[in-house]
Amino acid sequence: MREPPDLRDRVTRPDDSVGHVWPLALTSGWQCVSTPPGACVTPADCPQAGWLAAGVPGTVASAWRAAGRLDIANPPHFAYDDHWYRLTLSGHGHRRLRLHGLASIAEVWLDAALILRSDSMFEAHDIDIELKGTTTLSLCFRSLTPALEARRPRARWRPRLVSPPTLRNVRTTLLGHMPGWCPPIQAAGPWRPVELLGGTPHAFDTVDLAGRLDTSDGIVSLTLTFIDEQLTALPAHMTCGGVDVPLSWLDKRTLTGSLRIPDVERWWPHTHGVASLYDVLLKLGDLPAPIELGRLGFRTIEVDHGVDGESFGLTVNGMPVFCRGACWTSADLVTLAGSPAQLEHAFELARDAGMNMLRVGGTMVYESDAFYALADRFGILVWQDFAFANFDYPADDSFIRQTSREASQFLARTRRFASLAVLCGGSEVDQQAAMFGLPPAMRVQPLFTEQLPALVAALRPDVPYVVNSPSGGTWPFSTRRGVTHYYGVGAYMRGLDDARRAQVRFAAECLAFANVPDDATLHEAPGTIHQHDPRWKTAVPRDPGAGWDFDDVRDHYLHTLYGVEPARLRYEDPQRYLDLSRAVLADVMTDVFSEWRRHGASCRGALVWQFQDLRAGAGWGLVDATGRPKSVWHALARTLQPVQLLITDEGLDGLDLHLINETGTAIAAQLDIVSLRDGVQKVASASTAVELSARSTQCLRASDCLGQFFDFTYAYRFGPRSHDVTIATLRRASDGCVLSEAFHLPDRGVQNRHDVPMEVTLEPVGQGWQLVVEAARFARAVHVVDPHFRAAHDVFHLAPNRPHTIPLIRLDANDKTSRPQGELRAINALGPVFYG
Length: 836
Prior knowledge:
Strand content: 25-35%
Number of strands: 42
CATH architecture of the largest domain: Alpha-Beta Barrel
Distance between the termini: 64 Å
Helix content: 10-25%
Largest sheet: 8 strands, antiparallel
Oligomer: single chain
Shape: globular
CATH topology of the largest domain: TIM Barrel
Structural class: alpha+beta
């Protein structure tokens, strides 16, 4: 059977008049039913009652959710029952049934005939069928139990992350099988599209579209196959970038050709330029309109290992890029895909936060082509692990053939996407073996060192390959070489200075915390507002076997940085506990990324664990389960922008001010520094003109700007501390517009609270609202709380006597009537300020 690339999101239908060239997506009319394992051998054995309406693509869990039967906190063990789907087909003649993904061990029946067995959720299948009127298509998803009990060579190690460890033998996602990491919602069902091809003239089978750079020109290559033989060789042309070329017929079913676009505009990550894309159109015979085949971007991506050969960084179009972002989980754990609106919203948040990379880890799934199309459009690089993690995988011939098909299909269907930046063998496989004490020679797996790199070289030679994340050396997780997973600040509760001491080169994972969502999200999940409610603790991530969870990690930094006793504060003032919890992790994110992005740093990239939560509560996500940003997202949005001012504390050397301009345009600016006592009285200040060259970083010492001694960091301690905050502001010289701002507090303690007068004005703007806020003294970690709106930027420091505008975004986009009414809370203020 054929192994097609996924066409569903790679091509679009511009007009119904040419819609007949595309596959028919079988999305509606499906029913599903769950049965005990082995209870039904054939479709005829299925029960008459109990069938639910089911959407496809979808899962059994999504059908249950639509029917109101799914308890997210206590779902059934879907992977260990059987599940049947059925759909009536009508028609006559030859068709091709295309199944893009069946989770996880599946059978396909046409009436009483078994026409396919599949044992991988990551493989697509083509089946040629003959329709003779009305027939029933049945899909059966079998229990994983027999496969998990099958005998295979003993593994050299057994990770605690996954339950059961024999899942190494089954090609399925680990989502739903990782206690402490995510809800136990297991994949079962037709999670990728089911399509019917043929039955009309010129019906497409496959579209293989790719672009590459040849010096300054863009080369577009196309091979297009039809379901049926074309009895006449229709004239066909491909158009892209203003260039039109005829296509050639290789045979009666295959068109091919290429074109060259002179001086093509290059695709850049959005932080460094424009994510330029070109539409590729097909003119076929006398069809009335051109057919859109997809969009292409042209770029080069290479790995820079540094002068010592032990670094890891990406250069895009020959330019070094600091890669920053987060590790992707899923837009929707239940469907494993999410809606187009959910995906678009996630990419908007990634872009707005200044992220330019997302990593799809080996514990997740291969994402849809819609995901990659959005990454192309938004200028977000994608680090893609193959779907392998932690295990000592089988090395028998059947496993090698199976995983080769899986990887080849993925590489073929994503060939056209410019955003695919790194291909990685998997996640923490080498690390697991090393932590169990195996030396390098005993933990090698040819899957990662031979099989996968060969496929990448053949099918995506434009994308760098990494053996594993992390990998390399006696300790593959060494922070000072190559790719690491850094949790020194985070799970290992080390001080913030460890971010410099570790000399991180590239952190493909880092900085995991139990990040507290907004009050609105906590109130939507009843009970989770109280930290010791069992529902709160259920949502807090933990590593299996550990005597602590990630609430404990956050509390550690509350104690060490803010000088509070978390347990006491939690029961004496739970609201302040939550406010400080949000603020302290925002501080941690700001400090660590300021260190890693500073001028002269060894770090070339860092991806936070994780982008989004999979359930309501204080999860790892920068974004909560409803899609709302948390305080840590807001902190990163102030720290990861292409034009950025950062502060690092250099102890006895005072403060360093780091100026970053990743854009291709030079910027003339003014740098202002002011230190304040009691948040309002100026005790030191300076201004200096600066030039930010294109694609540059530079470092200025605050002491040099001031021109005299001032103990910015309170390191010398000659008498009482003279100030409580230093504010550095970068303004565009031409109009005084604030480009970036950074704050330094010589003492982070939160015991002293003051009267912080704030004037808040609520203003209508078009169909929405904004707040204009001005404080009479420095306001620290200002948090906007509103039952119907969220702040576009939040948990921010506010310089005194300067108006600050905050756009408000509706929590419910369909609510057009609610008016903003809430409060602003600053952690150094005696009480909130109300508005509305």
